[in-house]
């Protein structure tokens, strides 16, 4: 499970009984950091503006990371003090902000400048073959994925995932910052929160989705399709 992976350092810490009941030791917990983008803030223009990318990364994603670390530390303190009530009170924040960190970290890697080789569907031959097998053609898949994205009510995410067990491809949508945590491998995700497009597209959500197809990193998608869940989430390890 993804959250087990996300919380590994925390759980190991707790299981070792290494929680002597003070905040100084709780603050020794591993923390999560904002990952650097693999491209410049203006590299995805005109599909996504520099202003959006900079705010999205340095403000929105950073806030999820900061609040995740705060909630993990507060929950460790609560556990060390034997307060299950205070511990349980942090779980919602861990789920929301942990999901926000996971989703955005995966999303940045799903994008690439339109002029880069990675942005060509040819960079994902195995995945493209599987998509054609599942949906009939890439265009059919793109239409289906687009419809799912535009059908999200409120804030959320759309994902192409590789299903646990069967290895089949399917499209899932998740509300708010729910993350792909049910065993599936996330291959391609699209952020459908207004903060991802509103400054540039206003209420033109369909145009945002249309243009994002120009900047999909198909190399990343291919690697996730061929790999396992651990590969997809490798960059999400905490720093100790
Ligand atoms: Fe976002």
From TrEMBL:
Superkingdom of this protein's organism: Eukaryota
Cofactors (names): Mn(2+)
Keyword annotations of the record: Manganese, Metal-binding, Mitochondrion, Oxidoreductase, Transit peptide
Tagged with keyword Manganese: yes
Sequence ranges assigned to domain Manganese/iron superoxide dismutase N-terminal in this UniProt record: 31-112
Catalytically driven reaction(s): 2 superoxide + 2 H(+) = H2O2 + O2
Domain Manganese/iron superoxide dismutase C-terminal: 126-224
Binding site for Mn(2+): 56, 104, 191, 195
EC number from the UniProt entry: 1.15.1.1
Sample GO molecular function, one term: manganese ion binding
Gene3D superfamilies: Fe,Mn superoxide dismutase (SOD) domain, Iron/manganese superoxide dismutase, C-terminal domain
Membrane-spanning ranges: none
Cited function: Destroys superoxide anion radicals which are normally produced within the cells and which are toxic to biological systems.
Subunit organization: Homotetramer.
Protein's UniProt name: Superoxide dismutase
